[in-house]
Amino acid sequence: MLKNKTFRNYKEQIEFMQSRGIRVPDQEAAIEALSTFSYYSLVNLNKHLYGGLEKRDFEGSPSILDLQLAHMLNMNFYHILLKGILYVEAAFKTKLAYLISREFGTEAHDDLDRKGNNYFHQAYYDAANPSVPGTLRTLRNKLRFLLSDTKANSYSHKFLAGNRQLPPWMFVHDIEFGLAVLWYNILQQADRAEVRDRMMWGETGQPPAGLQAQAAADFFEAALKILREYRNTIAHGERVFPVEMTAVLPWQPLKAVLPEGILSLEEYQSGFGQKDTFACLLAVVYFIHDPVLMVSFLREIRAQIEFAQQIRQAMAPGALDIFQILGIPPFTMERLIRLSHLRFGSLTETFLDRT
After folding, report:
1. Model confidence, pTM
2. CB-hemisphere CA count at 13 Å for 314?
3. Looking at the 3D structure of the chain, how many domains does it have?
């Protein structure tokens, strides 16, 4: 039988918080906080930081200001992380569409067996992959959907309605990240390798000497899964709990692609770089090959951490450590900046190093 939930006004919510060990030094400020963020966001979603979900009372007697700091930091930090993931998503789609346009053509036709200039022609894809027909039909249906009245205001709809073909570099912007990954997965092995290599080393870079192709492929596949999982969680407005993530960066491929000194085995075995937020950050930074994007992303991340530390010191000195709230290691920025410097050298050192 389902338990009934009781409505509580703000004053009753404050009393209930206090009964659970949460300090409320200013009731008027607390009412404003509850009416802005909600009891659920401040209390329920921060319970894991103060003793765990299975315990009723909050350990350490946090104040409502501590909970506000944790909630605001989480929202701001993960929105910046989402921006970084979207950078990578855009790059992935661009490289995918570039290869498909070059190799398969710029037109899409309903007949999957039609040869020639038809990027839905299934013979262009991996014959050993049973997902090819289904994925191509899904893409074809997506293209048809763009012609529906639902998408009447979109640029793609107007383009198609003018009896023009939608080339891959335009179509790819209208498909979800997950569908783009499925499209990539049905490519033939050499085509997948080209997209993967461009994502990992850029258009002009080269893989490290001695790196095995399988290790690179394993890292790339796992990194895409992590990025998609974090992207979907953040984009849907859900709180990020790394323990609930299912995708994991395996150690051997991670060790093979990361430069020396970015992550040790001991740190990895402590949980860093597996499926936590640091793992997602590593994947984002690894796939950024534009120095301006890199500087912009890392400076935003660093600024948010520093701002949260200032707020903590001024308004909530008893709050948990910022890195503990976010679930990232204290060495996060130092390692990400080092990875950036190894790729771009003086191009990013000027903007990211302290004077």
Report:
1. 0.92
2. 6
3. 1
